[in-house]
Amino acid sequence: MTPLRICWLMLALIGAWLGRHLEAPDATVVIALATLAVWVLVETMVRRNWLALLTFPAMALGIGCALPLYLLLRSRRIV
Fold this sequence. Notes:
Order of helices and strands: HHHH
Helix content: over 70%
Number of helices: 4
Number of domains: 1
Largest sheet: none
Distance between the termini: 32 Å
């Protein structure tokens, strides 16, 4: 398994554990934001879509803002 796949698996397991044992929605939001951050960094390095890094400041507003913004920036044509 690649290191990236191990990262995804670990984030999924941590999210499952936090969601089951802590029953705190904030904990799962933190895991979702961490997962999005890893995804943005990996895809930015691969696609050289530097504008997608604007997702990081949007994370301060929450996953509901950051994820749609990232998908918007990711779906644009890269020149």
